TrEMBL record, chains A, B:
PANTHER family: HTH-TYPE TRANSCRIPTIONAL REGULATOR GALS, LACI-RELATED TRANSCRIPTIONAL REPRESSOR. It comes from Metabacillus sediminilitoris. This is LacI family transcriptional regulator. Pfam families: LacI, Peripla_BP_3. PROSITE patterns: HTH_LACI_1, HTH_LACI_2. The keyword Coiled coil does not apply. One of its GO terms (molecular function) is transcription cis-regulatory region binding. It comes from the Bacteria.
Amino acid sequence: MTTIKDIAKAAGVSVTTVSRALNGYSDVNEKTREKIIAVSKQLNYSPNTLARSLVMKKSKTIGLLVSGMTKQSGKDNLLFEVLRGLNQFSAETGYDLVLFSTNSTKQREKTYSQLCRERRVDGAIIQGIKTDDPYLQEVVDSDIPCVLVDIPIESETVGYVTTDNVLGAKKAVNHLLELGHRNIAMVNGHEFAFVSQKRLEGYEQALQEANIPSRTEWVINGAFEEEQAEHQVYQLLKTHPDITAIYCASDLMAIGAMKAVKRLGLCIPNQISIIGYDDILLSSYMTPSLTTIAQNFYEMGFEAGKMLIEILEDKAKSHRKLLETRLIVRESTIKNHT
Amino acid sequence: MTTIKDIAKAAGVSVTTVSRALNGYSDVNEKTREKIIAVSKQLNYSPNTLARSLVMKKSKTIGLLVSGMTKQSGKDNLLFEVLRGLNQFSAETGYDLVLFSTNSTKQREKTYSQLCRERRVDGAIIQGIKTDDPYLQEVVDSDIPCVLVDIPIESETVGYVTTDNVLGAKKAVNHLLELGHRNIAMVNGHEFAFVSQKRLEGYEQALQEANIPSRTEWVINGAFEEEQAEHQVYQLLKTHPDITAIYCASDLMAIGAMKAVKRLGLCIPNQISIIGYDDILLSSYMTPSLTTIAQNFYEMGFEAGKMLIEILEDKAKSHRKLLETRLIVRESTIKNHT
DNA sequence: GTGAAAGCGCTAACAT
DNA sequence: ATGTTAGCGCTTTCAC
């Protein structure tokens, strides 16, 4: 493996000159630069980023911290899309992406911030973490620049990107209201997700604005899981047959809800309308296809990367980025006929 | 950021002793070790892996080279599953994962092997590359240890993990044969995928063993894309209405095929049986759900990581790993009634 | 059992 | 425009 030392020797110059030539500094004679470049090509030189990072004290890498990279997380393409967006951005800017995951069967009691510091990542993107996760506080407390996906924390070195979940939820519920539904249930995620709180808030606001009293017994918890949602919805509809529409805080739960409704022998959308949230891949392939509130996860990943670099380079105007959601009407919602 | 030097000073020992103590060498007094550990905790020390890697000449990182991390690749959860498996393995063994993707809108004419050498990854996993991709040859030629997913190349430093695609294809076709189908069409991927060749081979073998002449005009090309498959199947069935079953080299194409069949006003499975390959997430959610040959991509990722480490540590018995496939019968295939 | 010193490959003052 | 030198934080002979 050739080093700049080898090149220096072969080109008859000092290592400094080689370094400067290769890094495009202006204070080097064009002739010598050409020669150095020629030699380095000939010797098939690749710079050692480890050495460079060591002395420069920055590694041009960003860490992606994901928690719970489980089978489950493959169902929504959420994490993957965020990764794709982030990857796209980092490729454009020359940053490399290193993946950190505590998804280990055994020990690895190393904390996220330790991981980040050891690997000397310049910054981190954090995704899929719960609000009560100890790692969250830890990372935020450390001085590692980072941006969070869907968790609103701001500081000198911390930013976040999310969508307006209250508004998104209102769009969903308003859609149902416009279709004439009045008895609208909600399947929420779990309390440790920031987005759940907001999506509930939007639900309540929308009902209130329509002068419909919200009934707490109609808001159930699906833990963001398909099976859990199916189970809960089944019970709910059995005891409350007057419900005509269900708003779910995630598409996966909406799919669970669809199963429950079918299991009860009811027809979607004629007897029960269902609307989801996320617009995951599955949604458009379901029968009936699922009406939902779309989020652009790819963009979230991309914007998260962008903000992180801005923070790193101290030119972030804002540490907060709100992306748009949009209503996608498909087959699972229809006018209320009751 | 504290270094071993700081610890040495604080503990009143030399850096050598600190290094040895922290790395668990035996030739260090237990008392001093305890003290050193205490001090390093107190100073919130994190080792600098960059420096360590530089001197040790190994980075404990493996690179994941993916090509075409597109919107499309989100449809099958294939890449994600491989990533998950690989991540699981590397987490268990303390290796970190860095993601390389040429998925860049602009320049980045840097080659994979350059990327690998610059970042000093110890080895690489290559996934989703076509057989005619110039990168492929390049990586194989370089001396970087690597393991390929679904491309059978072996050398001193190169291994691969795949499934028995001929056998898998035969399982699929035999299933249709057992259901009494005789007029079985095939939708293949593209010629630059090694697996396509094998899956075609299996198709032909199965037919031959059943004494059914294979008809080349019944083998069409779907380029592994849903829309392409839909289009091709639509044309095929129009001109060959005697076909009763279609075997597709991927689930995504099978889904395209399903759309085409429905568009022709035919019923699945009563008039046309369809079988796919892969068992992607969508398959079980389709209506009707899709019969398919399942591959375990998670396991492929895991095994690829495992083999890579074995190659790195010079204790690989074999540079080839064949995983099992299995037939999953769902609703899209049924006895032939014609 | 512990320390001094060299060196991994690179960049960056500071000369010249 | 180029070279000398120091040093990034760590591991590793080789002495003692």
